[in-house]
Design a protein that fits this description.
Elements (H helix, E strand, L loop, with lengths): L11 H14 L3 H17 L21 H5 L21 E2 L5 E2 L2
Antiparallel strand pairs: 1-2
């Protein structure tokens, strides 16, 4: 692991507690600071789940396990009438000058 030297100013009480924790654990104070910074930055930069996840209950307890089976054939009904080369017809609109366009 590449490290970069930096200076951190600590409150005197925090410094004493840090030194005491380091002595009790048999680890250098710098290691404890690196660990604390790593934990803090991981927690603060973690992407939270959207609030909408989990708000609905489908009533199907194994939905996640069976989603492929449940999606089998989805969207296929009515495809027999479609042609590969068929393009959807866009509505005709008038631009500011009053001329018709396809967009």
């Amino acid at each position: 692991m590449k490290t970069i030297k930096t200076t951190v100013y600590l409150d005197a009480a925090d410094y004493r507690r840090l030194k005491s924790l380091a002595a009790d654990s048999g680890r250098p104070a710098a290691e404890l600071v690196r660990e604390a910074v790593a934990e803090y930055t991981a927690r603060v930069t973690e992407r939270p789940w959207p609030r909408s996840i989990g708000i609905m209950n489908s009533g199907i307890p194994d939905l996640a396990e069976r989603y492929e089976e449940m999606m089998d054939g989805f969207g296929e009904e009515g495809l027999e009438d479609c042609q590969d080369d068929a393009r959807p017809t866009l509505p005709r609109r008038r631009n500011a000058a009053g001329a018709e366009s396809d967009t």
